[in-house]
Amino acid sequence: MADSSSRGIAWAGAVNLVGGGLGSLIGLVVAAIVGRELGTEGAGTYFLVVAVFMIVSSVAELGADTGLVRYVSAALAMGRLVDVPHLLRTAVTPVLLAGASVVVVVAGVVSSTGSLGGLPPAFLVAGAAIAVLSSLLAVALAVTRGFGDVLTYPLLQNVVLPLLRVGGVLAVVTAGGGVAAVLTAWMAPVPVVLALAAAVAMTLTVRSSGTLKPSTTRPAERRRVSREFWAFSATRGVTAAVEILLEWVDVILVGALTSPEEAGIYAVVTRCARAGEVIQQAARIAVGPQISAALARGAREEARQVYGLVTAAMIWLAWPFFIVLAVFGDAVLSVFGPGFDDGAASLAILCLAMGLSTAAGTVQTILLMGGRSSWQLVDKSVALTLNIALDLALIPLWGIEGAAVAWAVTIVVDTLLVAYQVQRLMELRPRARHLGVAAALSLGLVGSLTAASRLVLGSSVPELLGTLAAVAIVYLAASWPLRHRLGLVDLVAHRSGSLVPS
């Protein structure tokens, strides 16, 4: 597999953007199938179970995935590949134990509370076990990312897994299966993809370190590495649990405070808005190892310049998506079936907040790769508390629009807090010249053309597709002469260690 540092951030980002884009698209196709075949109520039950699955998977990871990205990439940068087999054992053993504990806890909970949405307890326990396998999948893929392999993660996580899921779900609904059958088809591919990811991770480890066995020498050094790894990762694990609650708690609360139908509509709204996060995720995956390696070498200027270039590219790519989604929200949601277009106002609110979040760049990644996992834990705890408080106050008043406002406020507050920590406390400030050009081009060109199309032509799927095609052509044509001012040329030319103080 290619080392991302040899091809640069632009290559890594492009690969992950394509893979993430395909994954998001396939995920939306699955949501559309579920919405059309199961209706808003069935979709509500489906997404509530998916929410629990994702929460269990994230909790069982214990933060070991992020820890492996950071420490494997740092070991690679510092020429300490002998530490990698020990890092793998250090990471995997606690995750296995935590996973077994999670399954036992879920079994105890469902035996006392009964079914969820009509699903039997045995099904929910089996789902918890597969969720633990999903956490091991994240750990295996983190090893490949730490080694600078930019292909395995998007191929397996964003293409193979979603394709297997959509194929299974389509087959099940064609055969007339209900919610339980659809969820089974959605979970079943996890063990298959885990086996593939584990094989790649072990191959890369053996290729670089010569063995999968931890070194028998330097026991004191191994203990030090283990302590440092879990001092970082354990904090990150708690933070990841808080983050996944942030992602799904509003869906759960909408279902509890209103109805499963409203939860189904709101879940689809949030999945559409989060589709734009594929750009942030691609940037995070591409930048994480580079930032970690740069900070490990003490190359703060490189880290600062990478941050600025990537942030400008994120605005250039993401803002047009959020603008079109906000303006044509009713047309987009109509694809998922009758009744889902009631979430158009909520979708517009979330698009505004997520656009603002994108403008801060990869601040979460920089915070983590800089070793400030404890800062992020505090940040996310504040955000979760704020989100739950706002949800409890606003959902009874405004329904799903109240949930959207609560999440939007939470996103903005969290983003401002983390941006302050990265740019002021860590003193990693991006250059503003590229950011301003990207923002002005997105708002001025895409915003005006999309709004005009909506006013003149109206809003339906054909108008949406026509507007997308026309705006994309005009936007790319206008961006070409501005490619230097957007920072795109510098980003494509970047190689690890190639940026120098300016």
Give me the strand/helix succession: HHHHHHHHHHHHHHHHHHHH
Q: Major β-sheet, in short?
A: none
Assign a percent range to the helix content: over 70%
Beta-strand content estimate? under 5%
Structural class: mainly alpha
**Termini gap:** 33 Å
Low-pLDDT parts are 1-6, 497-502
Q: What value does the average pLDDT take?
A: 85
**Gyration radius from CA atoms, angstroms:** 22 Å
Shape: globular
State the helix count.
Answer: 20
Work out the number of β strands: 0
Total count of domains: 1
Give an overview in words.
The protein is an all-alpha fold and 502 residues long. It has one domain (4-493). Helix content is 82%, strand content 0%. The chain has 20 helices and no strands. α2 (9-61) crosses α11 (277-297), α4 (84-113) packs parallel to α9 and α5 (121-146) runs parallel beside α8. It is globular. The model is unreliable at 1-6 and 497-502 (pLDDT under 50).
Describe the secondary-structure layout.
Layout: H1 4-7, H2 9-61, H3 64-77, H4 84-113, H5 121-146, H6 152-174, H7 179-187, H8 190-209, H9 219-257, H10 260-274, H11 277-297, H12 300-327, H13 329-334, H14 344-358, H15 363-369, H16 373-398, H17 400-425, H18 432-457, H19 461-479, H20 488-493
Helix pairs in contact: 2-4, 2-5, 2-6, 2-7, 2-9, 2-10, 2-11, 3-4, 3-5, 3-9, 3-11, 4-5, 4-9, 5-8, 6-7, 6-8, 9-10, 9-16, 10-14, 11-12, 11-15, 12-14, 12-18, 14-17, 15-17, 16-17, 18-19
